Each structure stands twice: as C-alpha cells, then as structure tokens.
C-alpha cells in the first residue's frame, strides 16, 4: 500500500471503482470516508446517480455525498485503449470494486485473469443482483429486487388485512447499501489476510449479491419457517417478537415511538400512564403474553398518548427513562443536537453546490478518524491528473484520447 497523509485508518489503501448507481459506489464511499484513496471510473456522461434526486443548477445533491472523497476519471470502456488504461491503473491499486452484471467486465477484456495478470495480489469485489453463479446469475436486478426476493419487502408492510396497498418500500436503497457494506467489510478482511504480519500476500475475489445481503438480515425468518413451517408476517409499526414497541399518535398529529418491552420498562410505562393495574393482568404478564394481546395493549397506550402533544410525550417518557422518540424527518435530523455533537450532520464545501449538509462518518474511530476531504467531484474532474500521475500520459496523449472519445 502507498504512504500518504493520514486521513483515517485506511490511509494508503488505493481502490479503483468501476461502479454505477448505488451498491459499488456506496462501498467505496465507506472506504473513502475511512481514508482510502478512491479512483472512480465513469462513462463520459457520468454515473447515472448524478441525475437522481433533487438538483441545483443540474447538480445532484445526493451526488455530493455519494461521490465524496473520490477522484473521477471518465473512460469509454468500449474502447480498446480504455481497457489498456484500466489495466494500467489496476497495476497501481490494491482493490477493484465493480457492480456490472456477471461476466460483463470479462467481455470487455477486464476479467479476473486479465486483472491479476497485471496485479497478482489485487483484491477484487464483484457486486451483483444475484451473485456470480447460480440459476439467476444473468437476471437483471436493482436494490428493490434484492429487497423483494430477500424477504424484506414482504415484511415492511402493514399487518395482513389492514391495507390493500402494495407492500411498502423501506424509503431508501437499502438493498444496495447493505451489499455495499458487506463488500467493504469483505475488502478490509481480504486486505488484512493479504497484508498482515505473516500474511500470505495473495489477492482474493469476493462475490456479493444484493439478494444474499438482504436475506442475511432477516433475523429468525428462515429458522422459524424451517422448524415450524411458520411464515413470518408483516406487523406494520409493531415488532412481532416484543411488546409494547410501536408508534403511537400524539394529540398534535405526530407519532411517538415507544419501546417498553422489558419487564422493568413496562413497569415504568404502566406507572407513567397511571395504569399500575396492567402489571397484575395475566394477559400482560411477561413479553409473550403482551405480544399475544398487543392490540388491546396498544389501544390502552394510544388512549394516553393521544391526549398529549409530541413535546409533552417526549419530555415525560425521557424523564421516566423509557426508550422513545418522535419520528424524525430530514428537518429534525438536521437540527438534532446529538447528531450535530457527533459530527453526523455537518456542513461541507461543495465546488458545484456551495455549502451542503452531509452525513458524517461511521464508525467513529478515536485516534485516526476518517474525514470528508471533498464533496462529489464533477464528471471526469481528475482524468488528466490521474492519467498523468499514474500512467505518465502527456497533454498531447490526453488530447488525442479525448478527441477519439476514449476519455
């Protein structure tokens, strides 16, 4: 790994991203936040995410975060010269991350064998919808497909019989992001095995599927079905295994989340709502009984919450030390003192947008924290810089490549 100024625990790790949309770029954003040097290869028109979400003067606000800490190189990968350039960059990198369909890079001349011919110890992370093998290997997939086939979309819905609307989406591209996180974890694991004291110096290949990533998060869903034949059902706001734990209405039209599902917490809640008699009711004694009678229990709690404003509810529940919160929108997240204190909401200077709010860096590492060094760059902003630095291409060379549409 190369030696550079310290920007986090992954300083010195150089990663080449040939990714688009969400999963691979999310993976490299996490690595970049923790100090890795990220070189992102984009088509001349840019990553499609640059056109997603709200924009200012044609510049995506999401991209400001999604592309941060990366240097952008534009390449037309259909060009033979572009393939040569990629292989030249690979020779200078530790890791390659991609999320094309299985086999697509190989058809371009960038299969694992070609990559390792120039960099034998390269760590390669393939991220795809269904994985690099299996009967669904070649099927098209985005995050929403992974969420559906992995069981998440079935469970993120209202309880059976309460709504005829389609199953509810989580609200963000969670399937893509989960796959990106797993890939980042796998990359760090592979680099550790390669480079640690008495490491083997070998490159490794990982295969991360969106569908696998979602399914792995499904708690007891599979064992419950395998052992009991039970299909876990959606429960709306409730947790199917613990009660009370749900969202309850306030008098001013807001929602308060209350999680009082342990015995001490339920006792505190019963006292707070002035219903100590609930503790003596057999149908509310113990978590299992409360889950079985959750509809009646939630109705009792709702009677109390619906008489108080959201601020009154938060104050009383916090004073009683009961886990609770109002349901935050972007406005509440942006002004929350805890998020601000921990740097999870921070202002960043963006060359394209001015001052922009970004989420902070996770995890918080005390002695060598990651940094936001810059916001998402413009398309191809670093093409000349990277190709000159790593491949020693001269201005005339770059001008020729640009004229013929390679960069």
Automatic annotation (TrEMBL):
Keyword Transferase among record annotations: yes
Keyword terms of this UniProt record: Transferase
PANTHER family on file: SUCCINATE--HYDROXYMETHYLGLUTARATE COA-TRANSFERASE
Organism of origin: Mesorhizobium zhangyense
Organismal lineage: Bacteria, Pseudomonadati, Pseudomonadota, Alphaproteobacteria, Hyphomicrobiales
Name used for this protein in its record: CoA transferase
Top-level taxon in the UniProt lineage: Bacteria
GO molecular function terms attached to this record: CoA-transferase activity
UniProt entry tagged with the keyword Cell cycle: no
Pfam families on file: CoA_transf_3
